[in-house]
Amino acid sequence: MRWAQNAQDQPVYWLNGLAGTGKSTIAQTFSEMARDCNVLGASFFCSRDYLDRKILKNIFPTIAYQLACRYPRFRDHLVKVIRQDPSVAHNSLISQLRDLLVDPLSATGISCVIVIDALDECVDDQPASAILSVLGRLVSKLPLVKFFITGRPEPRIRSGFRLPLMEPFTQVFLLHEVDSTSVGGDIRLYLTEKLTGIAKRRSGLDLPEAWPSDEDITVLVKKSSGLFIFASTVARFIESEHHEPRERLRLIVGRADDTSHEGASGIDSLYSQVLRDAFFGINEGFVFVDLKHILSAVVLALNPLSRDGLMQLLNINSAIISTRLRHLHSVLLVPADGAKEIRVFHKSFPDFLQDSDRCRDSRFHIDCSTRHGDMALSCLGLVGKLEINPCALPPFAMNEDVPNRQQLLMDKLGSGLRYACKYWTAHLLLSSSSGEYGNRLITATSLFFNRTLFPWMEIMSLEDHLEGVIHSMNNLLDWSGKVSDTCYGQPS
User: Fold this and answer.
1) What is the mean pLDDT of each run of 10 residues along the chain (492 residues)?
2) CA distance between the termini of the chain
3) What residues contact 288, with CB distance under 8 A and at least 6 apart?
4) What are the distances in angstroms from CA 192 to CA 201, 211, 232, 330?
5) Secondary structure of 410-458 in the HEC alphabet?
6) Bridge-partner residues for 174, per DSSP?
7) Are strands 145-151 and 40-45 parallel, antiparallel or unpaired?
């Protein structure tokens, strides 16, 4: 907040931290405080879990929209820009930044803070962050605007902030290098508050008055090693309504392993413990087959799916989905309402599941290319059931003539089929192109073109997503090229 209110400080602030150290929580809190102090202009919280929040070209148009909603004089200037170039939101990043933000902000003299959280979660194929590269070229033209950016210290993010045009304007704060005593004190306070709260809420369990003990809290703080995600996962693990808190605490405190850093350390052993405990004593192979399908769909979905959507997409009973995920509430948000999205609490959990060096239990490890192939086949299986005029519209009906179109699509199709229509080719592109999967996917896509191409295009039109047809065909061409290379050693 001192940085935000001090005009002499650098205009860019990079909160640099490892996974689980609390970057997004701080970004959220800082945004709320900046809003309360009337200095927040706009924010964009990147997320790999949502397709529209991991696309770089969505960042500047979204920020411009928020600024236009907040500042009438900015809006007036922006409207002129859009009238002159209606496609401005689809231009290059440098053009977007210049036309949508720099020129309107310079012309209006607005002073504000812009927050961009988790920049590392956006898809970016440049060696140095594309966003930071263009920001470095134009940030000097915005003397009244400050940018608060968070992200893991990945190579392209580090390279972006080290660019000659960016580095002089950037203040860096290394969150994972904060004094360990200070962080440990915060985690101790958090764990004490959470666990004593459990004791109060579950008084019928006759927990000891001094539960948890100072010794137990000390062990948990040591195991956390500065990772707030470790502490919050432990708290959710212990407070499970289906288990006895003392026994859950004993499982964590009694482990001999220590934690010292991110990766194959504390958080990995904790996730392994959560998974082992959730399925302790279960030996039936079909349980883990179901779990792998369900967990893979939750982790790899390009937009979060609800239990109803998973049931339709995977053809698995809703009760089975609930049963398989029942004991994973410390790592997954599983709403009681089947129509609400199931989400992971922290991106370190999917990272763990997808890395065979970290998740060594084959019952839980997710092989991405294989499982994306499964998702593509599930999507194509649903899309293949479409018939002409799937929403039973009258002849020659236009989209704007259809009342409550979104509700109609949900009623007629369901969330699983709507997801399948939008994302089947994206999963296809990420799937294996060789062997069994390659052959099965070739057969499935051939059937799609023979049977359901036009009903699918109709759905995409009703979703106001006709441009997605073009993207889907490009994905399909890219994937077919991979299949051709694999099968014949040369492009088709």
Assistant:
1) 92 90 93 96 93 93 97 96 94 96 96 96 91 96 96 91 95 87 91 90 75 92 86 89 86 62 62 87 87 94 94 94 89 91 88 92 93 94 93 89 91 95 94 79 92 94 91 89 63 42
2) 57
3) 279, 282, 363
4) 14, 10, 12, 17
5) HHHHCHHHHHHHHHHHHHHHCCCCCHHHHHHHHHHHHHHHHHCHHHHHH
6) 16
7) unpaired
Specify whether the CB–CB gap between 279 and 265 falls below 8 A: no
Residue 414 CA to residue 410 CA, distance in Å, equals: 5
Mind giving me the DSSP string for 97-128? Answer: IIIIIIHHHHHHT--EEEEEE-GGGSB--SSS
Tell me if 423 sits within 8 A of 303, measured CB to CB: yes
| In contact, 469 and 460? CB cutoff 8 Å | yes
CA 484 to CA 434: how far, in whole Å? 9
User: What's the chain's length in residues?
Assistant: 492
Distances (CA, A) of 186 to 24, 175, 211, 231, 405: 17, 14, 19, 10, 49
Give, as one character, the DSSP assignment of residue 62.
H
Token readout for 114 is: 């812009």
Nearest Cα residue to 228 out of 266, 276, 280 = 266
Q: How far is residue 80's CA from residue 86's CA, in Å, rounded to a whole number?
A: 10
Give me the phi and psi of 269, to 5 degrees please.
-65, -35
- 341 contacts 306 by C-beta, under 8 angstroms: yes
Whole-number Å distance between alpha carbons of 410 and 408:
5
Question: Please, where are the H alpha helices in 115-224?
Answer: 130-138, 155-161, 180-201, 214-224
* 8 Å CB contact between 486 and 439: no
What backbone phi and psi angles, to 5 degrees, belong to 363? -65, -25
Q: Are β-strands 332-333 and 145-151 bridged in parallel, bridged antiparallel, or unpaired?
A: unpaired
Using a cut of 0.85, tell me whether the model's pTM lies above it: no
Backbone phi and psi for residue 331, each to the nearest 5 degrees, phi listed first: -120, -15
